[in-house]
Amino acid sequence: MFYPLLTAVVMLGVGIGALRLNFWRPINQAVATVCFLSVLIFSAQLVAKHQGALYLIDRTSNPLPWIRLKFALIGLLSPLMVWVCYYLVSGRYSSRRDLLIKLSPWIILSGFLFWFPFTHGFKPDDSLPGNIQQGPLYYLYFLPMLAGQLAVCISAIIVAPHLSGVRKLEFRFITIALGYLSLVAVLAETIYATWPDLPGIHPLTRFFSYIVYLVFAVSAWSVTSRRVYHSGQVVLSIMERVIVIGLVGLIAAFLLRLLSGKEESPFVTATIIGAAFLLLGYADDKLRGWLKLKAEHKTAATVAELHQAATAELHPDRLIRRFEPILRSFADCSFVEILTEHGEKYTGRTTELPISLLREADFLRDGWASTAALSRMSDGTDATTLQRFLAQAKLDVIVAPRWTTREPTLIVGFGARESNLPYTHPEIRLLRELANVAESLFTRAKLSLQAQQAEQLASIGRLGVKVLHELRNPMATLKSFSQLLPEKIDDKTFLGDFAEIVPKEAERVESLAQQLLDLSRPRTYNFQRADLHKIIEETATMWKPRADEGGIKLATKLNAASSELVIDADAIRQVLINLLKNASEAVMRREGYREIKIRTRDEAGRVVIEVEDNGPGLPPEIQTRLFEAFTSNGKPSGVGLGLAICHEIVRAHGGSIGADLTREHGALLRISLPISM
Question: Which parts of the sequence belong to the Histidine kinase domain (predicted)?
Fold first, then answer.
C-alpha cells in the first residue's frame, strides 16, 4: 500500500502546484485534472485493497464497487485526458469550439469506457477475492484504450518535427509520459487481462503503471512550473541513475550472497555496502560524463575565458563588452547584453531596465526570469510588464548572479537560442554561475580602477612640491631673459644666448608638463597576443642610428622560448624606448667602449627582459626610489618620470620591473612578464 499512497500524494501535490501557479492556463487545468483523477484512482485502489482484506476476514465487506470505480476513472483518463493534453500542448486547434470538435470522438469513447466497469458484463457481481471473474466487456475495455494510445503516439511522431521553442519541449514531455510509456502500460495490462497466468506479467504491469505516473509527475512539473527542462536530458538522467543503481545493487547483492555462506560478519557486510556506495558515486560520475549530462567542462572553459578577458582588459566598461561574446558563445544564442547598475536602473548598450520593475516582478528574489516562465505564471500586471519588456528587448531570459542578497551590480540578458529552444532550468542555473563570475571580475575591475585613480591623485598631490621645484629653474631662466631683453636688445651675444637657452628651457617645461600628464592620466591598454621578440627587434632597429651616433654597440640576445604574450605592443615598446634612452644617456657619460645589451629568457612561466649597460651604474642614494616620479641620476635632460611610467605599464601587464643592485659597475634593469595573463 506504500507505493499507491506515495504516488497519490505526489500527484496531489503536482496538481495543486499547477493550479496555484496559473489557474486560468488551459494546460495547467488539464494537468491538474489528470493529477486529481490519478489521486481518485489510487484512492479507489487503496479502498478496494482494504475492503478485499476485510472480506477475507469477515466476508461482509465488498471491494467490487471500488474496483469498478477505479476502472471507470481510468477510462476517463485514457484516452480522453491524454488527447486533451496532446491538443493543448501542441496547439493543434484554432478555438475552444474546434478543440471540442476534435475531442468529440474521444469524449464519446471515454464515456463508454467509464460506463463499462459498472455493468455485469465487465465483472460479475460475485467476482470477489477467491473467486475473481472477468466478463466479456473486461477484455473489450482495453482494446479502444490501446487504440487511443497508439493513435496519440503516431500523431506525436508526425506533429513533433513541426513544433519549436518551449512548446516543443512541453510536447516531448507529454508524449513520453502520456504517449509512449502509457502505450506500453496499457499493452501490459491488455496482456495481463488476456493471459493472467503468464509468468512475471502481474509485477510488470504494476511496475509500468507506477513508472507512467512518476514520469507524468516530472512532465507535469516541467510543463506547468516556471522551470523549463529538456525532456531528453531528464529521461536520460533517470535512465542513467536506474542503470547505475541496478548494476551496483546486483554486484553488492552477489557479493553478500557469496560471502554470507562463508562468514557471517557485520564488518564484511558494512564493508561491501560502503564499497557499493563508493562504486555508485564513481560509476554515476563516469557515466554522466560519457552521456554528456555534465556541463562542468564547458562551464570551466568559459570561466577561464572570462578570467583571461579580465586580465587583458582593465577598464570595467570595456571589460563588459568583452564578456558578452564569451557568454553568447556559451549559450549559443543570437546576442548577449550585460546591463550594469546606474542609480535606479540597469543600462546596457541598447537597453534600459528600471529596478522597480524587477522588484515588482520578484526577479530579485528568484534571480532570473524568462519569457517561457513568465508565460506560465498568473496574468498579473508585474509579470506581464516584465514579459513585455523582454519581448521588446528581444531577450529570452535575464539572470542575476547567484548567492546575492542585494541588488546585483549587473544582470545578463540572453537573446533567442540558435535552435529556437527555450533555456532550461539547469542551463539557467549555469548562466547564473557565469554571471556570478562576470560580476566578481567586473567589481574587481571597478575597485582596481578606483584604487588606481585614488593613487594617481595622491601621487599628484605628493608631487606638487617637486613639480614646483622642477619648474622653478626653467621659469627663473625665462624670467631673467625676459627682464634683460629690453636692455640688451642690441647685444648680439645676449641674443645668441637667448635664442639657444630660451627654447631649451621652454621645451623642458613642456616636457615636464607632458610627462606629468602621462603619469596622471588613466592609461588605456589594448591587450592582444603579440610576439615580444619582434617588438624588441623593431625597437632596437629604430634605436640603432642614435646608438651608432654616440658610438654605442647595441646587441640583442633573445633566448626566451615563449615569446607570444598577451600584451599592449605600443606600451611595451614605450617601456623599451625609455630603458634604451636611460641606458644611452648613462653610457655617454663614460669614455671608451660603450655597450647596451638586450636579453630575454624563460623563468617559471614568465619571460624576463634584461637591459644592461656598461655605464657608471646606479648611485646608492637613488636605488631605493628608482621607480618613483622625479627620481633622476643627474641627467642633463629629463625630469625623472620615465621609469615611473615604465613601472605603471609593467604592473598593468601583471609583471614586475626592478634593478640589479649587486653590481659595482653598469646598470641592469630586469622586466618580468607572465606568459599567460
Answer: 466-677
